[in-house]
Design a protein that fits this description.
alpha+beta
Length: 526
Amino acid sequence: MDYQPVVVRKHPRPASTKHNAESRYWRQYRHPVFIKEYAPVTSVHFSPAKPHRYAVTAATRVQIYAPRTQKVTKTISRFKDVARSGCIRGDGKLVVAGDDSGLIQVFDINSRAILRTLDSHKQPVHVTKFSALDQTQVLSCSDDTTVKLWDVPSQAAITTFLDHTDYVRSGQVSTSNPHLILTGSYDATVRLFDSRTGECEMVMGDPSGEAGTRNTAPVEQVLMFPSGTVALSSAGPILRVWDLVAGGRCTRAMSNHQKTITSLAFNSDASRVLTGGLDQMVKVYDVSTYRVVHTMRYPAPILCMAISPDETHIAAGMSDGTLSVRRRQPKASEPAANDLFSVTSLRTGAFESFLGGALPALGQGRVKEKKSKPIGDVDELKVESKRKKRLREYDRLLKNFKYSAALDSVLRKNVPPTTTFSLIQELIHRDGLRTALAGRDDVLLEPVLRLLLKHITDPRFGEMVCDVANVVIEMYTPVLGQSPLIDTLFVRLRKKVAAEIRFQKELVKAKGALDMLLASAALSVV
């Protein structure tokens, strides 16, 4: 009779404590680099163009960092007062920044030369951003309650909006329409302006509006979806979603932060929203459900945050002057979003799934498949010989009755516990467990005790662990006291068993209390 391999018994898996796929992805942003600045970091902005350098604004300077080395490559410090909102243009060649004197300056990112000066605001300018669709235009929002759209070549304001009644600390030009501007103010309103009419077309969160849709706190940040149909705003700890197509109706309001939300950011495809707050938390929302799918903790209150376009870096500026940069190593199989129609992608056919057909590779001819001819007669049958299954190491040792060596082979770290305990069960059936455990010194006995210690509380193996532990204690009690390591492991095993017994007693008490409550509830219903 042929040898029958050990059957590895499958146990029902316990409740998984591991993180889901979403959480595992965001946990790849690890190894944070902390860079200390002289003052609170008030703005972080990644360049849309490769290599995605990022501008960090703190005190009276804007510093340009290289993402690979996290080192400063350029420092722009030609400001009269505290610098604000350093922003890199879409082509990565220019930087615009405002300051607390009301001055806006446009710099060449390489030479750091001042190319344009926009001097019209009378109070600090907290927002300066290039228009994504028209790179010759700059948006500015100031504490003098005005919002301006500038023409950079002529250094003149195209339009000035005067509708806000308090500080304007956030704003953005729509990425789908260069004429639409979304702003948030300390007057608790979010406004949508149109530069063609020069008027405010929509007001959201007005304190005089309907209950549940009005803001009761200053609007700290606004963000518009790339489609231009939905906007987000943060006022205090509440994140609101506004449907611009439905006339600025509030569709959702989430309050997952404990303190004020100070920053909002999209990932590369706008399927996730990251929010940072003064509660030292960054939360990741799934925009399809607006549920929090991951949370990151930081050492200080967060003032600003940004994620790189290639999703390899998350940079956050904090109130204590610390800049934190978390990095993720993209997998080799992960295609870059903006490389979809590059020359390499076209040649390898990576774009075919988007075009809906299997097209031939560019620059290569189509090769006709050769028809294979049948070999031999039509009525001829080929009898295939069965390949012998190779036995695993522990099966080979069991087959040769080397019980001790077989047990040693499954006590290694890379062997799953189901396999280890299936082999122990086989040894018990063969009446060979004592033989496998006999004659061990402290080096060979240690892995056995560590296995028992690790799985004594596992409901899948607890009963078998107790049986094996009884055999080990019975066999090695006479030699206790000769090895400090073995004595320590026995003591730890005893303490763990005692703790488990106490826990089980508490569970029985809780079960009894619940049974009583459920019984009384059933009686009251009847």
